[in-house]
Amino acid sequence: MSEMKECCYCNMDIPSKARICPYCGNDPDYIGSDAHKSRKNAEKFFLIMLAFFITVACLIFAMGA
Ligand SMILES: [Zn+2]
After folding, report:
1. Range list of β-strands (E), the chain
2. Is the pTM of this model over 0.90?
3. Residue 41 CA to ligand 1 centre (angstroms)
4. 27: alpha, beta or left? (left if phi > 0; alpha if psi -120 to 50)
5. For residue 29, how far is its CA from the centre of ligand 1 (angstroms)?
6. Residue 7 burial (CB < 10 Å; 0-12/13-18/19+)?
7. What pLDDT was estimated at residue 38?
8. How far is the CA of 14 from the centre of ligand 1 (A)?
């Protein structure tokens, strides 16, 4: 399930979600447009989750009131 990517500094295989390479401590996404894309997707996913939780919270509040 966990995807791997190659660190652009030390070329070690690291988890694709890793923001800091566990081997060399650098940002493995510094180079490459794919990283930007996945970061954008992560932001979008976070916003969707946030909207979802707000909706659920409103529903719970509406039911409780
Ligand atoms: Zn590295």
Report:
1. 4-6, 13-15
2. no
3. 23
4. beta
5. 10
6. buried
7. 72
8. 8
How close is the Cα of 20 to the center of ligand 1, in Å? Answer: 8
| Distance between Cα 34 and ligand 1 center (Å) | 17
Distance CA 50, CA 58 (A): 12
What is the Å distance from ligand 1's center to 10 Cα?
Answer: 4
Share of the chain above pLDDT 70, in %: 85
9-21: pLDDT as tens digits: 898 999 988 889 9
Tokens of 16: 């694709």
